[in-house]
Each structure stands twice: as structure tokens, then as C-alpha cells.
Design goal:
binds nicotinamide-adenine-dinucleotide, globular, alpha/beta, seven-stranded mixed sheet, 45% helix, two-stranded antiparallel sheet
Length: 214
């Protein structure tokens, strides 16, 4: 496994390479090269080789990479060669949409859905039923939940995140705009779709300005 500290940007690119390889496999492509991977991932071939070199050598000089083998290795590196049990906390619009999202079933298994609203508790969602937040500790322990999706209102985020950590959740995917602080051994990944939309607005408005300038 990796000896040097792997940069976060490398991890993000590994996820992209995996997507590219999955797409190649769907198209029946059996072998690829760092050049081809690079082109589809919109990086340089040097970058691809450097990213993969953190974890060993996967290709054969002059022969490139086997698509299924590299895909399997990347899944292993990313911790996707096993299933992860997850809880969704905050079963409003977003929490319910995520619970029903079929794409989650690839490696992730939602086994707990929690809220504090008595009107929502008991309602069927995805593969289960919404439970009161007070059941979180027991559920984490008994169902082996390791990851949590945080989809509560921003004002409640900090407190609920603390609660998730106390319950034993090992990593949080934070969909709220709040900044969450956790102990170093509990990583937080932020999903900020409004930030993405704002960047998009910037790039599109820049294109429009360039068109005006000619
Ligand atoms: P929502 O109001 O529909 O749902 C929030 C849910 O959290 C409710 O069911 C509420 O009862 C529950 N809740 C409140 N306090 C709680 C607590 N202490 N413990 C457990 N559950 C609690 O909101 P939403 O639109 O689903 O958004 C949820 C979060 O995701 C917000 O922070 C929002 O900014 C963010 N977000 C939403 C969207 C979206 O498209 N809806 C997109 C990006 C980010």
C-alpha cells in the first residue's frame, strides 16, 4: 500500500480514473494506456503515472494497463472492494432523495435513516423506515454503520455531527453549508453543490463577456 502521504488531489483523481475505467469496461475495452486514461480524465499522462506510482506499479512497459485489473486495484486502494454501511441523518427533501438513489447500492448500503420530526418517524424510505435520532447509537453499534450522510438544516449540523461521532460513525459526508469540526480520526467530506453552481456561473459569465469583447 502507499508509503508516502498521498495528496487529497490524487485521491480525487483516482476516483476519476476509476469512473473512466468503468466506462471503458462498459464499452468492452480491455487494455488502456496512461495517455488514454489521461485524456479522458483531463490530466497529463505524467500525472496519471505519478498518481498510480504512490501505490505500486500496475502496468507493463509498452503494454499499458489491463482495464479490469487496474479497475480492481483502484477499487481496493479506494476502499471500495467491500460494502460500507451508512446512516442518513436528516430525512427531509435531500435525505429522502439520497435514500431512494439507486446509485448508492454500488458499494454502499444505507441501513439507518434518522430524523427528529415525529411526523416523519415511521415513514418508509429507500430500503427502510425513518427512526428517531435517539436510536442512532444503538443502530451504529448493532448494524455496523461506519459512514454517515448529514442532511439536516445548517443550524443543527454541528450538534448532530458531534452526536454522529459520539455514536461511533467513522466518516461524515456533509451536505450542509455549515463547517463541521470533528476529531482528526473522523474525516469530513463536504458536498457543496451551490459552490459548484457559483463556479459555473463565473465560467459561463466569463465566456459571455469574452463573446462581447469578440
Ligand atoms: P429539509 O428541511 O427538507 O430537511 C431537513 C431534515 O432534517 C428535516 O426532516 C428535519 O426534521 C431534520 N432535522 C432537523 N433537525 C434535526 C436534528 N437535530 N437531527 C436529525 N434531523 C433533524 O432540508 P433539505 O432541503 O433536505 O436540506 C438539508 C440540508 O442539505 C440543508 O443543510 C441544506 O442546506 C442542504 N442542501 C440541500 C439541498 C437540496 O437540494 N435540498 C441541496 C444541497 C444542500
Amino acid at each position: 500500500m502507499a508509503s508516502a502521504k498521498v495528496p487529497d488531489a490524487t485521491v480525487s483523481r483516482l476516483v476519476t480514473y476509476l469512473r473512466v475505467l468503468e466506462e471503458m469496461e462498459r464499452r468492452g475495452v480491455r487494455r488502456t494506456s496512461s495517455e488514454e486514461l489521461a485524456e479522458q480524465a483531463q490530466v497529463t499522462a505524467f500525472q496519471v503515472r505519478k498518481d498510480l506510482a504512490y501505490f505500486g506499479s500496475f502496468g507493463t512497459r509498452g503494454m499499458g494497463y489491463s482495464v479490469p485489473l487496474l479497475k480492481r486495484e483502484l477499487r481496493k486502494i479506494l476502499g471500495l472492494d467491500r460494502r460500507w454501511r451508512i446512516a442518513i441523518v436528516g430525512m427531509g427533501r435531500l435525505g429522502q432523495a439520497l435514500a431512494d438513489y439507486p446509485g448508492l447500492s454500488q458499494g454502499f448500503e444505507p441501513v439507518g435513516f434518522f430524523d427528529v420530526d415525529p411526523e416523519k418517524i415511521g415513514k418508509r424510505v429507500g430500503s427502510g423506515v425513518i427512526e428517531p435520532l435517539s436510536k442512532l447509537d444503538e443502530a451504529v453499534r448493532e448494524r455496523g454503520i461506519e459512514l454517515g450522510l448529514l442532511t439536516v438544516p445548517a443550524e443543527a449540523a454541528e450538534e448532530v455531527a458531534k452526536r454522529m461521532v459520539r455514536a461511533g460513525i467513522k466518516g461524515i459526508l456533509n451536505f450542509t453549508p455549515a463547517v463541521i469540526e470533528t476529531p482528526p480520526e473522523v474525516p469530513v467530506e463536504n458536498v457543496d453543490f451551490l459552490a459548484g453552481l457559483s463556479r459555473l456561473a463565473y465560467f459561463v459569465s466569463r465566456n459571455i463577456r469574452e463573446e462581447w469583447v469578440g
